[in-house]
């Protein structure tokens, strides 16, 4: 039995090392590429930025940084990632700054349900930060927020193969694409923007919903603090919504466009995301507001 | 511990079954009168099948009863039980029954060791989803001295790796499409539905045979030999051969404890037909309390009967070499097996008929569901590659007349790497046979 166990340990250990080398190669490939936003953010820090846009899908698809730059003469990047929330926006800003990024302004596209969330959790796309697991702030983010039983993200700091295996379709195959074409970007342009290609399902106009923001999410405070520490002007932004209107709070510098395109179904992809035409209109109005 | 981890309350059932069959086994052996032995055997049968009936079939019978009377315009008010099915009850019930029956038939001396008998009933690798072991085979292994055999244990490790590949890579990735297609079959083209049925065939095979391989492999690490449960069933050339290769532990159980006692194939043709119908219907019903399983069993009986009537049901017993006509037969057999799987997977008979109806409408050959986004395309590619890989390994073993895939260190390392980069860990699904 000793011989069997020795053999098992030897072959198992060898395989474990080889597979983890594969993971390191895979992570390296992703870090060099622009496939996902975290590596895009790092690879773009050479630019002297006037602003960055942080947010989830509303930030990603509403503010067109190309149009903002052409109208203002500024340099900006959209670092929003779909299917994320304030903790990920905080991580993205931290990641950008820790890697030498500098910006004068941070436009944070928020949603009222996200700022009201008193129990923030890990984002659905936070695994895109796994290639940077060696960084303390990434490791901390996973450790604090991941509540899955088997914690693939947190465990990856010791066993990287676990995270890559768990998120294989999201990480391993993109790393192969990145190896072949490092400049390939996953559904965003060279300024970090994405636009919904066409109208989604038919939209219905409903009775207007008007509500106040409830600020319960501590990650908003963390973003605020991080901006203060780095002399960054924080501007909260609420993107247009089809059937909702949020009252503007007075405790933040806030561009509230929740009712800007109110019930204009031809400018929306769905109830909370504008389409291409809506994006143009929303961006132009944003520029007017920010340059006033 | 293993069983209680799932739900400790059902431990009482398995403990009761164990104590009962242990005592009855000894009592049957001691009994000098045939009548008393028979009474003790019937006690075992009634109690064990009674538990199975209450937990697995009671609600089904009550609901069917209510529906039948509703059809006659009579409203019945009978309450159903809000209980969950104890995991593995169908498996361990059959295992304990085989013990008392074998003791009654004098094919086995009852064990005097309660510990050995309890270990036989609750042997953790195969407790929840088989293979359904026979007391004559497994029980003596608990009392024998086990000497560690390195090559036997190594083969166990390889089998665990192969089983994991089938479960995590093939079954769980197939489930991604199968669940979508079966849940909203009206939204898909004929080609998508047809491929959905084929993918379910691979899903259930990967899921169940994968579990069996992991169970057999784990048992080997402890020095126990469990029976082969699957022997490359999708390379079968007719339905009779399919049933000699699919869920072997269950089909041989039914053969030995139901088919042969009914007269088997030693009676006149009409009775043989009756026996075949009974065994397939019972086999279908064993899987679950739903009419769909009965239809699934009935379909297999219908596919089997022509072979029986033409006396060609044992044509492919020997492992002769494959030739081109065999490939056509393999394809045809796989096709009708897939057709029957639609009933097995569907929630109701009408859904299954609708599903098959849409396939045979041949309205469109579009395969959009498999290519509608880069994610779906990636899943399709992973599924395609993994099925080809599995067929390659299995066909090689099949040609060498083996009953399991033999890996070597390098091929095992390759399979592990495939599990890591192709496994559906995030979308993992429960083992299908845990519900039976």
Plain-language structure description:
The complex is a heterodimer of chains A (292) and B (436). Chain A has helices at 2-32, 37-43, 57-62, 65-72, 86-98, 112-116, 136-145, 152-155, 160-166, 168-180, 218-229, 276-291, and strands spanning 49-54, 76-78, 103-110, 209-211, 233-238, 244-246, 254-256. Chain A is an alpha/beta fold. Chain A has a single domain (2-291), classed as Rossmann fold (3-Layer(aba) Sandwich), CATH 3.40.50. In chain A, the strands form two sheets. In chain A, strands 2-1-3-5-7 form a five-stranded parallel β-sheet, sandwiched between helices. In chain A, strands 4-6 form a two-stranded parallel sheet. Chain A starts with a helix and ends with a helix. By secondary structure, chain B is mainly α. Chain B has two domains: 2-143; 152-237 and 316-435, no CATH class. Chain B is built from 18 helices and no strands.
Main features:
heterodimer; A: 292 residues; alpha/beta; Rossmann fold; 5-stranded parallel β-sheet; 11% strand; B: 436 residues; mainly alpha; 18 helices; 0% strand; globular
List the helices and strands and how they pair.
The complex is a heterodimer of chains A (292) and B (436).
Chain A (H helix, E strand, L loop, with lengths): L1 H31 L4 H7 L5 E6 L2 H6 L2 H8 L3 E3 L7 H13 L4 E8 L1 H5 L19 H10 L6 H4 L4 H7 L1 H13 L28 E3 L6 H12 L3 E6 L5 E3 L7 E3 L19 H16 L1
Parallel strand pairs in A: 1-2, 1-3, 3-5, 4-6, 5-7
Helix pairs in contact in A: 1-10, 4-12, 5-11, 9-10
Chain B lengths: L1 H6 L3 H20 L3 H38 L17 H16 L9 H8 L2 H4 L7 H9 L6 H34 L6 H32 L17 H7 L2 H12 L9 H19 L3 H19 L14 H22 L3 H13 L6 H4 L2 H26 L9 H14 L14
Helix pairs in contact in B: 2-3, 2-4, 2-5, 3-4, 5-7, 8-9, 8-17, 8-18, 9-14, 9-15, 11-12, 12-13, 13-14, 14-15
């Amino acid at each position: 039995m000793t011989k069997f166990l020795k053999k098992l340990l030897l072959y198992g250990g060898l395989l474990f090392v080889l597979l983890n080398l594969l993971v390191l190669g895979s992570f390296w490939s992703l870090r060099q590429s622009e496939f996902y936003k975290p590596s895009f953010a790092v690879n773009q820090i050479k630019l002297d930025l006037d602003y960055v846009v942080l947010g989830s899908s509303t930030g990603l698809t509403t503010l067109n940084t190309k149009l903002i730059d052409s109208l203002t003469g500024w340099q900006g990047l959209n670092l929003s990632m779909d299917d994320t929330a304030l903790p990920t926006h905080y991580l993205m800003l931290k990641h950008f700054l820790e890697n030498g990024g500098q910006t004068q302004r941070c436009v944070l596209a928020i949603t009222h349900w996200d700022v009201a969330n008193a129990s923030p959790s890990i984002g659905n796309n936070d695994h895109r930060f796994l290639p940077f697991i060696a960084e303390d702030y990434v490791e901390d983010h996973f450790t604090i927020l991941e509540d899955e039983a088997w914690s693939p993200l947190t465990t990856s700091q010791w066993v990287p193969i676990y995270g890559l295996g768990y998120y294989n379709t999201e990480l391993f195959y993109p790393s192969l694409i990145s190896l072949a074409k490092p400049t390939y970007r996953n559904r965003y342009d060279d300024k970090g923007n994405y636009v919904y290609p066409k109208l989604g399902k038919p939209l219905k106009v409903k009775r207007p919903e008007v509500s106040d923001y409830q600020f319960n999410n501590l990650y908003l405070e963390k973003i605020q603090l991080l901006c203060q520490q780095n002399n960054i002007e924080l501007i909260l932004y609420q993107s247009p919504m089809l059937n909702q209107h949020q009252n503007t709070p007075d405790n933040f510098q806030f561009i509230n466009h929740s009712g800007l395109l109110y019930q204009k179904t031809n400018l929306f992809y769905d109830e909370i995301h504008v389409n291409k035409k809506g994006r143009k209109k929303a961006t132009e109005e944003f520029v007017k507001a920010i340059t006033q | 511990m293993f069983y209680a981890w799932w739900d400790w309350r059902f431990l009482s059932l398995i403990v009761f079954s164990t104590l009962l069959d242990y005592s009855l086994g000894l009592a049957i052996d001691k009994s000098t009168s045939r009548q008393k032995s028979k009474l003790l055997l019937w006690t075992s049968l009634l109690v064990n099948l009674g538990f199975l009936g209450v937990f697995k079939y009671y609600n089904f019978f009550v609901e069917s009863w209510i529906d039948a009377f509703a059809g006659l315009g009579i409203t019945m008010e009978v309450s159903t039980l809000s209980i969950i099915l104890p995991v593995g009850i169908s498996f361990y019930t059959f295992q304990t029954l085989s013990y008392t029956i074998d003791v009654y038939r004098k094919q086995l001396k009852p064990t005097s060791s309660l510990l050995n008998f309890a270990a036989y009933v609750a042997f953790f690798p195969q407790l929840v989803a088989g293979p359904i072991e026979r007391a004559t085979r497994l029980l003596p292994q608990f009392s024998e001295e086990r000497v560690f055999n390195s090559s036997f244990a190594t083969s166990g490790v390889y089998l665990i790796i192969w089983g994991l590949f089938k479960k995590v890579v093939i079954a769980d990735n197939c489930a991604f499409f199968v669940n979508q297609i079966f849940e909203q079959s009206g939204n898909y083209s004929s080609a998508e539905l047809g491929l959905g049925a084929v993918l379910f065939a691979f899903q259930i095979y990967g899921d169940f045979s994968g579990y069996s391989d992991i169970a057999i492999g784990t048992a080997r690490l402890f020095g126990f030999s469990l029976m082969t449960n699957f022997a490359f069933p999708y390379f079968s050339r007719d339905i009779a051969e399919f049933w000699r290769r699919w869920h072997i532990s269950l089909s041989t159980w039914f053969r030995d404890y139901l088919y042969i006692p009914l007269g088997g194939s030693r009676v006149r043709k009409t009775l043989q037909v009756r026996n075949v119908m009974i065994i397939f219907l019972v086999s279908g019903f064993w899987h679950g309390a739903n009419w769909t399983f009965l239809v699934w069993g009935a379909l297999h009986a219908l596919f089997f009967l022509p072979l029986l009537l033409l006396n060609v049901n044992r044509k492919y017993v020997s492992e002769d070499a494959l030739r081109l006509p065999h490939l056509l037969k393999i394809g045809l057999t796989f096709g009708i097996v897939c057709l029957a799987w639609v009933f097995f997977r569907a929630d109701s008979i009408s859904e299954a008929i609708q599903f098959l109806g849409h396939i045979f409408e041949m309205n469109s050959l579009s395969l959009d569901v498999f290519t509608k986004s880069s994610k779906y395309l990636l899943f399709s590619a992973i599924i395609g590659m993994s099925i080809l890989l599995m067929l390659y390994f299995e066909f090689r073993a099949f040609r060498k007349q083996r009953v399991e895939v033999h890996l070597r260190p390098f091929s095992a390392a390759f399979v592990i790497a495939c599990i890591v980069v192709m496994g559906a860990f995030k979308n993992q699904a429960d083992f299908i046979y845990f519900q039976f």
